[in-house]
Amino acid sequence: MIKDEEKQPSTPVRRPSMADYLSPLVRDIKPSGIRRFFDLVSTRKDVITLGVGEPDFVTPWHVREAAVYALETGKTQYTSNAGMPELRGAIGQYLNDQFAVAYNPADEILVTVGGSEAIDLALRAFISPGDEILIPEPCYISYSPITALTGGKPVGIETYAKDEFKLKAESLKAVITPKSKVLILCYPSNPTGGTMTYEDWLPITKLVEEHDLVVISDEIYAELTYGSKHVSFAAMPGMKDRTVLVSGFSKAFAMTGWRMGYACGHPDLIAAMLKIHQYTVMCAPIMAQYAALEALQHGLEEKDRMVEAYNQRRRLVVKGFRDIGLDCHEPQGAFYAFPSIVSTGLTSEQFAQRLLDEAGVAAVPGDVFGLGGEGHLRCSYATSVTNLTEALERIGGFVHRLKQQG
Fold this sequence. Notes:
With 406 residues, the protein is of the alpha/beta class. The protein is 42% helix and 13% strand. It has 14 helices and twelve strands. A seven-stranded mixed sheet has the order 2-8-7-6-5-3-4, sandwiched between helices. Strand 5 (180-186), helix 9 and strand 6 (214-218) form a beta-alpha-beta unit. Helix 6 (114-126) packs across helix 10 (267-280). The radius of gyration is 24 Å and the shape is globular. The mean pLDDT is 93.
């Protein structure tokens, strides 16, 4: 006879959610604010997109041909972990010629899978749990999440339109603590288009030296400046050895999909990054490396023509926003305008969503870029004049309707 207690159903075993297996560091990271917003765009027709930070130019034919020729001649093997010696040599020569900073290709240059990998490698090589990483904001959205993944603590430093979004020494000094270890710089700036001059950098260098900081200088937009030449932080007096210069071919050479970047710095810093690189991606793709070599050796005139086109569009967009009645500081670099939408009474998220829904224009709400981003909209002018003109007309109509409703 079965006893009553034996008839009682057993307590069901809880099956864990697959999310329970995830690292808390990964689970707690928010998805990209840019990608989340543009997932919405994919569901709409007749939308003009001013959002993705990508040149509208196709990679020049002779650069593509170099990759095709590499394939045709059987160049399909691994290269040196650090990248092809001839490419590293060309990068070193280019940086010396263009920005007056000299690196030894043998042990001070590392070819990476895009500038993004270079940033990731540098942060993983430098950060110990609890280290504070200082990040001027608004900024490229990846710095803080990568810092968090390494166990570091991102510390934002707000910059302001009234200062042309330049990093000010007093703002940097205010956030430095004994735990501060790394300063990340991105000038010309994504998303603001702000730049820094030699005079702007001088007080920053003094604080970096005084507090013994190491610097990651993301200079992916270095070639895209208007009116004045880019000043590399690594070229500042005493800064080369404590700076990792990060750049690549995506923006200036219209090679985003090739995923070609590089990092330059003191041999000890590059050696540490190389150890991580060789155990994770091995090396950058050889065909893309041949394309990058061609771009450096024979693509500078085309680069300059693209920069001039961006400059024309920049003037059109800044004037357009001001004519609409939206304050817009004049970007001196990159290919983004960062107009203020505070006068509309909407948040950045509300403005961007309604602009998409009601006017068919996609742009990125400024709040996704960190401190100082709220109240702004990031608009890429790396698209045709026709698209920009139509987008400005739609934005102007949208803002006019908002004012009438208010």
